[in-house]
Design goal:
Blueprint (H helix, E strand, L loop, with lengths): L2 E3 L6 E3 L2 E3 L6 E2 L2 E2 L3 H14 L3 E3 L10 H10 L8 E6 L18 H15 L4 E6 L8 H14 L2 E6 L4 H14 L4 E4 L12 H9 L3 E2 L15 E2 L5 E2 L5 H4 L3 H5 L2 H17 L3 H10 L9 E2 L4 H8 L8 H11 L6
Parallel strand pairs: 3-6, 3-14, 6-7, 7-8, 8-9, 9-10, 10-11
Antiparallel strand pairs: 1-2, 4-5, 12-13
Amino acid sequence: MEYVTLGNTGTTVSRLCFGTWRFGKRHGDVLETDKEEAHDLLDACWDHGVNFIDTANVYGDPDGTSEEWIGEWLGSYDREDVVIASKVYFPFDGWGDPRPNDSGLGRKHIRRQIEGTLERLGTDYLDCYYIHRWDDETPIEETLSVLTDLVREGTVHHLGASTMAAWKLTKALWTSDVEGLERFDVTQPMVNAAHYDAVDDYLAVCADRDLAVCPYSPLAGGFLTGKYDRTEDGTVEAPDGSRGTLTETFGDRYATDRAWAVLEAVEAVADDLEATPAQVSLRWLIEQDRFTCVPIVGARTPAQLEENVGAVDLELTDEQFERIETARGKESDS
């Protein structure tokens, strides 16, 4: 495994982060990852040198399941060897009938949620705490103020921001500078070879301010693994149990004309390197030179994780990198 400094922080992480949103997640009667499978995956992360684990307070069914399972696993390892990130914003077990102050980024909700997150993880601090979304109802000054308190108390080491508009990220960074508050050092947008331009302004801010980028869905929901086929009528033929069979919006979100063109280029590069499309797609992200990029992989089995980790051993030539870039510009998203 290779390691890299996480943006402008002093924390060193593996070139891949392991995402645990599947832990305890249900689609109807289908449980994506049970506890035993979750612990096997975390053991595999350890064996491969993946030291960066991503979760959120609302991952799993019920909410908090992912954090609980990570906490149980973590009890057998040295906490200092693992970098853990979690998130706050959404209602916690209050989706059907949310109560006042049960969501958002106000002081009351953040304080309540960080206590629960730490208890479930069995730790007294987080390495990174993300705001899961932007809160239009709470002044960013209040949010950054309580997050600053958490950092200065030692409860959180670094702050992160997930999906939001570029101007909102800029506003938050400006507020931190002007008010003398802790700033966001890590970001988590959806970025992959097939879908990139939609967040280019956001990434430009990250590059300018030396923020680390930890993309979720780096394989476009599994599309860039090459396991999907395009039918004559343009729809997606998905293997049983794949994301394409579990998510009704999969085709519209991931299988665009541009995505098929990118996949073709990725598969050609994979053939050149005797690698898999997933490894090439992840390596394309790792080799972004405008910012530190640490993709969040969501492997469902230890074998998939081992395949993902193989991306670290690849190196794309300038021609191969450009081949994927050119494919990305062939057609606009449909």
